[in-house]
Amino acid sequence: MKDGQPSAIYLKDYQVPAFLIDKTELTFDLDESVTIVTSRLHMRRNPKSKFRTAPLVLDGGEDVKLIALAMDDYQLPPEEYRLRNHQIIITATADEFVLTCETLIEPQNNTRLEGLYRSSSMFCTQCEAEGFRHITYYLDRPDVMSVFTTTIIADGDKYPVLLSNGNEVSRSLNEEGKTVAVWHDPFPKPAYLFALVAGNLEVIEDQFTTLSNRAVTLKIFTESHNIDKVDYSMDALKRSMKWDEEKYGREYDLDIFMIVAVDDFNMGAMENKGLNVFNSSCLLASPKTTTDDGYQRVEAVVAHEYFHNWSGNRVTCRDWFQLSLKEGFTVFRDQQFSADMNSPVVKRVEDVSFLKTAQFAEDAGPMSHPVRPSSFIEISNFYTLTIYEKGSEIVRMIHTLLGEDSFRKGSDLYFERHDGQAVTCDDFVQAMQDASGIDLSQFKRWYSQAGTPRVEAVGSYDEVTKTYQLTLTQATPPTANQPTKLPLLMPIRVGLLDENGKALTSELNGKNDTSHVLTLNLSEQVFEFKQVDTAPIPSLLRGFSAPVKLSYDYTVEQLSILMSSDEDGFNRWNAAQELAVRELNTLISQARRGEVLSIESQLLLGFKALLDDQSLDKSMVSLILSLPSQAYLSEISEEVDPQAIKQARTYLKQLIARALEQEFANCYEANNVDVDYSPDAQQISQRQLKNAALSYWSETNSVAAERAVLSQFQSADNMTDQFSALSIAVNTTHPEFQSMLDSFYSQWSHEALVVNKWLMLIAAQEADNGLEQVKQLMQHDAFDLKNPNKVRAVLGGLGSSVSTFHNETGAGYAFLADQIIVLNKRNPQLASRLCTPLTRWRKMKPNLSVLMQKQLERILSEELSKDVFEVVSKSLA
Ligand code: 0A1
Ligand code: ZN
């Protein structure tokens, strides 16, 4: 960083706003060269502020040019206000006044994709978290809630669709022949929920009748070539609306709900009031172009953004430190929804696997932070897995502790008590406590303590008294600025099995059951299960009831029993992972010592039984068959050796593939059925198992498997099968893989989202000339540095390739650093996220660690955005 370093802001410094804005009237005169924004802000001093004479301070951005400023009808001359650090400061104000502000912006030059910008041929906005200040000067903070009226003036031929929040109140032509559309949103909202879209778009329309019989018009807009790919989103939207009524009693509140797909977007989607804006990758779906995973993502994101209408919009955040108030709760809600729409246990395994891989890594790294951070430099850096996924786990724990009924009472109370307010995480927990009568004061520590707690379990059985004692100890490791930690309150769901895997009933606290929820809240605690017939195998942390690292000294036999018989599906998967992790760790150590790899795998028997048993849930079988990922194995390593991990995974996969070749071939054939594609749970699980079997089978390099791969690639009528075959071919260096890649591109060059999958596959490839290929990709017609999806495809792909990224010359790290430096100027949010792999430098083996560190230092010596500066400086600290 060259000049003065950006400084942090602190939660402890929070003050209520000195001014309020009751009404916000905005006029946008849209044009390709300059856009003029006129705002009329109906302001008054906040009676709740203790600063009765505080100056008015409005936030702006370096890209906003102030043209005129008036207070009531008085034009303020420059000497009556100050412009400093992109803020307007007015010292003398009345208690109530209308501030009129005219600004000039250039959306076509906005490459940060915050505020108002151009994507393809349209204008669109992204205002969360602090994007509104790139449109006009404002009190850009979530606790300033205002009623917005928006007037959009534009050339009606080029931009026939003109949208903003709320309801359209009028549409006319002005004297210059331009179209003037006026929108009004009756619900007070913070500026981060403002949205505007102007473009030549196609629309599909539908209707939803709410519980109280109100008709809501639903519209989804895309550019014309994509309008055939939004039927599934519309269906997911209607299912979400119904589900939120049934599960949470939440009805939609406006007469219209709109979604717009845009190609250039930094994140997944945005919940602007009544006008959601989506990254097209999270909205468009068709069988031929979208994989099953893609369909499920679309369903989840549509639901997530819709659910925000209550958890986020009607009740919003007081300040950005409370971000998880809306995000943790909304992720929990979308996870529940997806579980209800599909298989709950499969969904749980997928979510936990993601959490344990990526969030645990974040929580153990230099950007570790509490779910309610106490400080930040740039809020955009805090849209993290901790805020979202760990935040959701916290809400899930409340749900487990309270039970379904009290949890619903708590959420009803929360919405009723805080409707129309901007509140805190404490307010949420308080409503849960008040509705249930359960004391959650200690539980609140989950919001302020970073790091993943470790829980150790030790059991002992007494034959004579038939009691089983389980001792649990907990400790949370130190994290940045938090050297010591207090014990947390957490639910630990436990069951007991006999040596044949049969569930044992036991008595705990007067309750007889095969499953109990223990409340752990001390550093060390003993739980006594009575009436236990025989020495049990404990099934611990069922359903992953708390986001912790739990250890228990199981024998291989006990893990095998849990894997094949536990009544808790999640723990069956977990036991299989644990078995695989043990074997992979042995192999990783051999690889690190330069030995020939060799192991007798205990997984074979269990995997064979799984493949032979036709009655099991096929998704669960394929999840159990999937070996722990490169990323997860890195997360649990003390010192990461990517090459050794890769070698170990390949060895074990090939060993299993050879031993069970016939089983995999049979499984593939049995599940390779011809059906009309539908993204339903049953079909998805069958394709998942089929492709998992094909992936193993291909590791044998048998001619039959190679033929099956090629034939599936050529004849598939859906993207799941076609892309699975292609990925397998690339990863096993199938003799035809290059021609398959080429033909895939020619088949799909007109479909941007499919091309992105192709870009990622090539960038992630393990090839000797990997870096050359990545460089060529970035010169390819299909690449565009302006489009975050494409940048993420190529650079994200690169980051997951062991041989290219973790190349011992350091060339992979240097290349990524070069791209970060370029993007830092264009799109700081995107650049900052690309830093993640480098932030793990301290955990890498020494030679790689030094190479990564050097690149971080090189980045830090540049003139940096706040976004990149925060991540890189904290990583090196
Ligand atoms: N609130 C959105 C996430 C989001 C955050 C920031 C954005 O722009 C920088 C865009 C979207 C959600 O949770 O879906
Ligand atoms: Zn969200």
TrEMBL record:
The reaction(s) this protein catalyses: Release of an N-terminal amino acid, Xaa-|-Yaa- from a peptide, amide or arylamide. Xaa is preferably Ala, but may be most amino acids including Pro (slow action). When a terminal hydrophobic residue is followed by a prolyl residue, the two may be released as an intact Xaa-Pro dipeptide
Family indicated by similarity: Belongs to the peptidase M1 family.
MF terms (GO), sorted A to Z: alanyl aminopeptidase activity
EC number: 3.4.11.2
Gene from which this protein is expressed: pepN
Top-level taxon of origin: Bacteria
Protein name: Aminopeptidase N
Keyword field contains Metal-binding: yes
Keywords, comma-separated and alphabetical: Aminopeptidase, Hydrolase, Metal-binding, Metalloprotease, Protease, Zinc
Species assigned in the record: Marinomonas phaeophyticola
Needed co-factor(s): Zn(2+)
Domain Aminopeptidase N-like N-terminal: 110-193
Peptidase M1 membrane alanine aminopeptidase domain boundaries: 232-446
Peptidase M1 alanyl aminopeptidase C-terminal domain sequence ranges: 557-877
Keyword Ribonucleoprotein (UniProt): no
Residue ranges occupied by any Peptidase M1 alanyl aminopeptidase Ig-like fold domain in the UniProt entry: 451-553
One Pfam family in the UniProt entry: Peptidase_M1
Gene3D superfamilies the record matches: 2.60.40.1840, 3.30.2010.30, Neutral Protease Domain 2, Peptidase M1, alanyl aminopeptidase, C-terminal domain, tricorn interacting facor f3 domain
